[in-house]
Specification:
The structure is a single chain. Strand 3 (about 65-70), helix 3 (about 85-95) and strand 4 form a beta-alpha-beta unit. The protein has a single domain (about 10-260), classed as Metal-dependent hydrolases (TIM Barrel). It has helices at about 30-35, 55-60, 85-95, 115-130, 145-150, 165-175, 190-200, 230-240, 245-260, and strands spanning about 10-15, 40-45, 65-70, 100-105, 135-140, 160, 180, 205-210. Helix 3 runs parallel beside helix 4 and helix 8 (about 230-240) crosses helix 9 (about 245-260). It has an eight-stranded parallel beta sheet. By secondary structure, the protein is of the alpha/beta class. The relative contact order is 0.16.
């Protein structure tokens, strides 16, 4: 956590932050100022439903330090309609996003709608292929199935958001051109397997994220929202785990984010 009053001399990219969430309503300008002070130079804002496309687009227009991604999140599939995919296609055509996302599968909350989730996921992978865009993946309790569909529907890489799989699964994502997102979960001492991955995976495969307002780091009071400014603490944790400087970690993860999300402004 940072209390600096002046911007720190690094440039971090938060590759996954829901800045349009209700928890941040009316406070985005303040949040962006705090993030800039903490060295966050850019934020990727993924959408989760058709109804949020316009809000995410307007937010990113208002804040040039933000870039939009558009997609239909697997946890909202039950309320999604087939023509939402047509609206998504039109949005990808007109809004110039950096990725399709947040998309994927979630078998943690429920697997009863598995076929429906997989249908929307595959259709969105097809759109990513059509527009030659990377994807931001949600893979909770569904990593192997997500990998199966990626092998069958090759896309231009992307980010496995909030990665929590095995080393073998990590290697499979890397082979398919993906970076792996690490956030607040890696700051918990009890997350031994995740911290080992953050330590031993090639540095060239890691990107940083908050998933704010969700998945706060260990120091955040229970029930309080995560914030983009906390990315600095996450970066400090990963640098410490790997035995490298914060500057080295920042330079690498920022370069990684730009390599996989080619549409990010330079």
């Amino acid at each position: 956590m940072t209390c600096n009053s002046e911007p720190v001399a690094i440039a971090l990219i938060d590759t996954h932050c829901h800045l349009d969430a209700a928890e941040f309503a009316g406070h985005q300008a303040e949040i962006m100022r705090a993030a800039k002070t903490a060295g966050i130079s850019h934020i990727v804002v993924p959408s989760v439903t058709r109804d949020r496309f316009a809000g995410v687009s307007a937010l990113c227009d208002q804040h040039p330090e933000c870039s939009a991604a558009f997609g239909i999140h697997p946890m909202f599939i039950e309320s999604a309609k087939p023509d939402d995919l047509l609206v998504l296609r039109e949005t990808l055509l007109t809004e110039n996003p950096v990725a399709v996302g947040e998309i994927g599968l979630d078998f943690f909350v429920t697997s009863d709608n598995r076929a429906r989730q997989e249908y929307f996921f595959v259709e969105q992978l097809k759109l990513a292929r059509e527009f030659d865009l990377p994807v931001l993946l949600h893979t909770r309790r569904a990593t192997d199935t997500v990998l199966k569909h990626l092998r069958q529907n090759a896309v231009r890489g992307g980010i496995a958001h909030a990665f929590s799989g095995s080393r073998e699964q990590a290697d499979e994502f890397i082979k398919l051109g993906f970076k792996l997102g690490f956030g607040g979960a890696a700051t918990f001492l009890r997350a031994t397997r995740l911290r080992e991955l953050a330590t031993t995976l090639p540095l060239s495969c890691l990107v940083l994220e908050t998933d704010a307002p969700d998945m706060p780091p260990e120091f955040v009071l229970r029930g309080s929202p995560n914030k983009p400014e906390y990315l600095l603490h996450i970066a400090e944790t990963l640098a410490s785990l790997r035995g490298i400087s914060l500057t080295e970690l920042a330079l690498a993860t920022t370069a990684n984010a730009r390599s996989v999300l080619a549409g990010l402004p330079r």
